[in-house]
């Protein structure tokens, strides 16, 4: 009998074998449903590498790439690429751990930033993970904790209140289970599972009545490093996450023997062949996702380096693909502050937390134009009938006697009138250019998106200087304004990229950038605060705006994943991007109902609205009661890299805008303003 004849019975048995394996979740003890198996005892041999439409080619698979192979992926936080080995090591360079943020460690101490805390764990994997949470409220009894309790159910203690919670089954997978088991010093996970909440034994224990959804990429050292959503109330029909870990004495490495129909990971484990190239780290070392001609489903994103990652990892502010293409359609970009992502599933209730709420407020769908919550922006007035800011300001609400220039080189009565004109017809190019009388059509403010990388270039009045936009201070609110000025609806993300990485084919790039600060409601960057030009070098980073096209579907309806907030305009943003003083939604609805603000960069108005600290004492009322402009408020300092001179004509700082229904008299002298943001360009002074 030849080899082909002898193989026929075996090949015919493969579908049956796969069917049994795929339905193995029906076999465990009552109440448990198993999903995404990673490692199982195997027998037989596999003498060759098996590829298919998705997995391959062989030359790639033979390299045994993993999630730490920097020839295939961007190194995780706290690691850097060693050129000698092409592997991510635990020794990040200082400029790769540059973020100035306070984070707390598990022992109640402070660390310089999250990157340093993760690197510390990476260097010594025999001790408990270091990172706990961001902030300065560091106490050992207030640190993030996780443990496996009865039936391998995962319990976590959340900082800021020491709330205990279980982990929700929604979004739970083998990648997150690996992280849990790794933290328990239990090597890796056999399976990710879920169990009915009502089936969990309660003898001698008190179970939390809430769960939190988590999303992990699989390389993290503890769940504290993963994205954790807001708590969700549990009921008897709810399912919660279970992690089935290998014991220390278990053998997760079956060597070189994997059954036909299984893939051998770089670490020796065996996983089902159809669990490769699905965007989920089944192996535990990521090797099942490193060599993929395409991805198996639409829940995975295909990097240009032929790696598959989860769609949840896109636009999360961290580049995972080698070229950063998970963060923008263009290569070489690093993303910050994601605003809107495609979502699926449903969210039947409004989720509140310590910051966001209460529900009664959220149900009102307030926005940045709701004058029951905020002062109307310049060029608008409050309509008493609708309690909304309209584009028809009363004469006494556009009282300033100042000369301003419009984009067509003409003069307007004042900035308020110019903005109102744009408001009335959103299909026109924004009207306002700059303050002053030097009005010529070739000497007006202009903004454009340069190259396929969507770098922002502006032309400043006075001497028509061209500049890019600095990355410091750049955020999604400013990106919304840029996209709106381009008639591109709103921004997907605010991004930054290295100045030296910008393609220069057939274009001459400016060698300076300007910092900008926008509130998010403006019609163009001309209405924002613009700082003085800063010289660029090869190490500088500049701002990028990734806009939706006019044909994009910005409104996913009423379907937002758990852990995301639904904006009044229908968009979905991460729950922890609400109440941070940044207009992530584009309509401001993520900041309108806030019991308190999430960080020291936001100011809490008496009307329970969060605004940026940069908006305090800027001469413009934002809070409903004007408490952002009172004498006790202090303006934020200038960006650390931007030397900003004194204004050449401080009399032209913006006057305070009256709030309905009884506007105050115009100020006789300019209010204390943010001199750190006042520019010497015609935009702000003649």
Q: What do the pLDDT scores average to?
A: 77
Low-pLDDT sequence parts: 1-47, 329-348, 633-686
Helix proportion range: under 10%
How many angstroms does the end-to-end distance come to?
A: 95 Å
Q: Class by helix and strand content? A: mainly beta
Oligomer: single chain
Give the CA-based shape. Answer: globular
Strand content: 15-25%
Please give the count of helices: 7
How does the major sheet shape up?
A: 5 strands, mixed
Rg computed from alpha carbons, rounded to a whole number of angstroms: 28 Å
Strand order of the largest sheet: 7-8-9-11-14
DSSP E strands, number: 38
Count of spatially separate domains: 2
Molecular structure report:
- The protein is mainly beta and 686 residues long.
- 10% of the residues lie in helices and 21% in strands.
- It has two domains: 24-327, no CATH class; 381-652, Mac-2 Binding Protein (Roll), CATH 3.10.250.10.
- A five-stranded mixed sheet has the order 7-8-9-11-14, with no helix packed on it. A five-stranded mixed sheet has the order 26-27-28-30-33, with no helix packed on it. It has a three-stranded antiparallel sheet with strand order 1-10-15.
- The longest helix is centred in the first third of the chain and has 20 residues, at 3-22.
- It is globular and about 80 Å long.
């Amino acid at each position: 009998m030849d080899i082909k004849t002898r193989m026929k019975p075996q090949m015919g048995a493969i579908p049956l074998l796969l069917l049994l394996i795929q339905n193995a979740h029906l076999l465990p003890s009552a109440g448990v449903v198993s999903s995404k198996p990673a490692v199982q005892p195997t027998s037989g041999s596999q003498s060759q590498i098996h590829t298919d439409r998705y997995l391959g080619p062989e030359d790639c698979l033979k390299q045994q790439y993993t999630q730490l192979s920097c020839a295939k992926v961007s190194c995780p936080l706290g690691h850097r690429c060693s050129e000698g080995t092409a592997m991510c090591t635990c020794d990040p360079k200082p400029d790769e751990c540059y973020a100035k943020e306070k984070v707390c460690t598990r022992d109640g101490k402070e660390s310089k930033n999250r990157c340093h805390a993760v690197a510390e764990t990476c260097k010594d994997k025999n001790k408990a993970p270091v990172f706990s949470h961001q902030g300065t409220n560091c106490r050992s009894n207030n640190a993030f904790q996780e443990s496996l309790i009865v039936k391998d159910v995962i319990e976590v203690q959340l900082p800021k209140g020491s709330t205990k919670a279980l982990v929700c089954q929604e979004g739970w997978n083998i990648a997150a289970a690996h992280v849990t088991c790794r933290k328990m010093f239990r090597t890796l996970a056999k399976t990710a599972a879920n169990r009915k909440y009502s089936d969990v034994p309660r003898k001698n224990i008190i179970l939390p009545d809430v769960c939190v959804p988590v999303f992990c990429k699989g390389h993290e050292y503890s769940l504290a490093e993963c994205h954790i959503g807001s708590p969700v109330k549990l009921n008897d029909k709810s399912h919660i996450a279970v992690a089935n870990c290998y014991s220390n004495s278990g053998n997760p490495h079956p060597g070189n023997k994997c059954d036909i129909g299984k893939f051998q990971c770089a670490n020796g484990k065996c996983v089902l062949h159809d669990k490769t190239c699905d965007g989920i780290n089944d192996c535990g070392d990521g090797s099942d996702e490193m060599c993929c001609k395409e991805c198996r489903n639409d829940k995975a994103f295909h990097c240009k380096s032929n790696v598959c990652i989860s769609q949840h990892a896109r636009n999360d502010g961290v580049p995972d693909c080698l070229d950063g293409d998970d963060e923008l359609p263009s290569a070489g970009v690093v993303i910050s502050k994601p605003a809107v992502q495609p979502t699926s599933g449903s969210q039947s209730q409004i989720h509140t937390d310590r910051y966001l709420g209460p529900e009664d407020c959220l149900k009102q769908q307030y926005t940045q134009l709701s004058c029951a919550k905020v002062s109307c922006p310049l060029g608008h007035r409050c309509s008493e009938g609708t309690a909304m800011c309209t584009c028809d300001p009363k004469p006494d609400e556009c009282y300033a006697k100042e000369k301003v220039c419009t984009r067509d080189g003409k003069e307007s009565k004042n900035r308020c009138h110019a903005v109102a004109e744009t408001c009335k017809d959103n299909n026109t190019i924004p009207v306002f250019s700059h303050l002053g009388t030097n009005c010529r059509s070739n000497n007006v403010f202009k903004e454009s998106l340069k190259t396929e990388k969507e770098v922002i270039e502006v032309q400043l009045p006075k001497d028509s200087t061209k500049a890019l936009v600095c990355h410091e201070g750049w955020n999604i609110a400013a990106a919304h304004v840029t996209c709106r000025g381009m008639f591109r609806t709103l921004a997907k993300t605010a991004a930054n990229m290295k100045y030296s990485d910008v393609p220069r084919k057939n274009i001459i790039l400016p060698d300076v950038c300007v910092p900008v600060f926008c509130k998010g409601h403006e019609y163009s960057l001309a209405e924002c605060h613009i700082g003085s030009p800063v010289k660029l070098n090869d190490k500088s980073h500049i701002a990028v705006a990734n806009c939706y096209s006019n044909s994009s579907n910005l409104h996913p309806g009423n379907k937002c994943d758990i852990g995301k907030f639904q904006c009044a305009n229908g968009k979905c943003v991460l729950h922890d991007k609400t109440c941070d003083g940044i207009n992530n939604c584009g309509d401001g609805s993520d900041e309108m109902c806030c019991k308190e603000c999430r960080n020291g960069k936001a100011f809490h108005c008496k009307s329970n609205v969060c605004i940026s600290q940069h908006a305090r004492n800027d001469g413009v009322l934002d809070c409903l009661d004007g408490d952002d402009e009172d004498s006790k408020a202090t303006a934020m300092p200038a960006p650390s890299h931007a030397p900003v001179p004194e204004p050449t004509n401080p009399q032209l700082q913006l006057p305070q805008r009256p709030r309905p229904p009884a506007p105050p008299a115009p100020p006789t002298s300019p209010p204390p303003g943010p001199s750190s943001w006042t520019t010497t360009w015609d935009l702000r002074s003649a």
